[in-house]
Recover the amino acids of this structure.
């Protein structure tokens, strides 16, 4: 009751404004107008395993040839948008210009999409960790900032202490898929025993899926049964997406 009252007061005193065009946002507190929201390109027929965009006419709900040939270590990926204009601008502003209000918009959009999906929910949200040196340079972990509104909206706990990146890796942006996998090998570790059997990894962009695959491999070796990947946007590997 108190939270609802505070949200109403906040909406009255600080009405939402679109982070893209500056027009009025969507009540009660989404800083994105309906027009700009409609411009975001949906990932309409993704592979259910890796969320790779499928060709027009491909059977829905069937795994892509890559996942059939070599299944990734995670079990499912939910990635509602394509990394294209204008969501690429939102992600870049959030990640590289410290626009945390934009991060809240992206986290809210992802939470709404996940909330519409059927099936069992994870016990735990795990933001993909940054190496301490990268964290100090950026000043925040974008995956954690995405996870915060998701945790509040979906009622799922976040754990930012469980997983750590133990090896500083090269920037993935310019690397091929093969080099990304090699770059991330044994990059993650667990600080303690994990109690959750079903977790969701949170990230901003999925390109080849190498980062989440390596982290999922680490979690499954520790006994986690189901690992999902929840990210805002999916990029094709040949593009220069701003991914970890």
């Amino acid at each position: 009751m108190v939270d609802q009252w505070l949200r109403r007061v906040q909406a009255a005193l600080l009405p939402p404004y679109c982070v893209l065009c500056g027009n009025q946002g969507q009540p009660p507190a989404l800083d994105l107008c309906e027009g700009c929201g409609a411009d975001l390109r949906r990932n309409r027929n993704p592979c259910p395993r890796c969320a790779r965009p499928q060709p027009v006419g491909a059977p829905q709900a069937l795994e892509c040839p890559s996942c059939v040939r070599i299944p990734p270590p995670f079990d499912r990926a939910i990635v509602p948008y394509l990394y294209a204009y204008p969501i690429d601008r939102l992600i870049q502003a959030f990640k590289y210009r410290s626009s945390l209000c934009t991060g809240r918009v992206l986290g809210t959009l992802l939470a709404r999409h996940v909330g519409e999906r059927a099936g069992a929910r994870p016990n735990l949200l795990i933001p993909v960790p940054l190496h301490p040196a990268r964290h100090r340079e950026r000043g925040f972990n974008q995956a954690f900032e995405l996870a915060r509104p998701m945790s509040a909206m979906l009622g799922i706990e976040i754990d930012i202490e469980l997983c750590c990146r133990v090896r500083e890796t090269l920037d993935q942006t310019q690397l091929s898929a093969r080099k990304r996998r090699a770059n991330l090998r044994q990059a993650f570790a667990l600080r303690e025993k994990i109690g959750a059997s079903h977790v969701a990894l949170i990230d901003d962009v999925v390109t080849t899926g190498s980062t989440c695959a390596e982290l999922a491999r680490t979690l499954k070796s520790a006994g986690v049964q189901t690992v999902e990947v929840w990210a805002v946007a999916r990029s094709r590997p040949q593009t220069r997406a701003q991914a970890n």
User: Anything to note?
Assistant: The two ends are 39 Å apart (CA to CA). Residues 1-13, 239-244 have pLDDT under 50 and may be disordered. The beta strands are 76-78, 81-82, 124-127, 157-158, 163-165, 188-190, 198-206, 226-234.
